[in-house]
Write a structure and sequence with these properties.
With 264 residues, this protein is of the alpha+beta class. Helix content is 30%, strand content 24%. The two termini are 30 Å apart.
Amino acid sequence: MNRHRILQLPLRIHAARIPIFSRVPLRNASTAASQPTSAQPSRWTRRLIYATLFGALGVSAGKFMDDKVSAPPNPGSMEDQAALQEIQYLYDTRIPIVQKLRSNPDWQESDVYGDFSEEKKAGRLTSGPLGGSRGLGLQKVFSNEKEQKIISVVFLGPGLEGWPTMVHGGALGTVIDENLGRAAIRRFLARTGVTANLNINYRAPVYSGNFYTFHTALDQERSTDTKGYATCEVRDATGHVCVEASGIFVVPKKLKLASIGDRF
């Protein structure tokens, strides 16, 4: 899947040709038959071709701008529900890494915030205000307990744009932070923790309306039961690394936090 969509409008031009006879006076039939002829494209044919070409380009450009300028559907609306169903269908059938991970028993698939009620989900940033097809239209987590790794498949909707077609860096940072925390907090006996340090390097643009994978790993040698070190890479459909990040997570000594659980 290319990161840039290129619109191609194939057009075969068949120019009509008409005979142009010499202006030399015709003396007889045999002389006329022997005169050479030439041909040139009809002006009206060329005009029709140009009008068709530019008309098609105009319609396509207009539809593209309409899709980009028009407001995305509101969460919970019928349009939003239809868009979410389409996103789920694409996730189940068109994402190669999903099929690969599902076929490997070492990787366990789950929804984000599986331990939370719908009421609690609505109050969380990434499943509430940033939810719906316009935001984080889909978040699935594949975890590998043996390797202490997590791969999240996320759909980044148009409502997360900071610049037209490009996902806002802060929105990416939020998702990255949560995935780093998932890897670290699973190691903690308290099953809870907070971010102590977060470093992000943006390597390439991340485009809205696409699926991206967040590959997160825990540094098992440096991590303890109360302090975890983790790294994360955001990759596009071709495997190209768009963002690199690292984080440190700790269990507060003086602050009592509720347990998050395993499915968050």
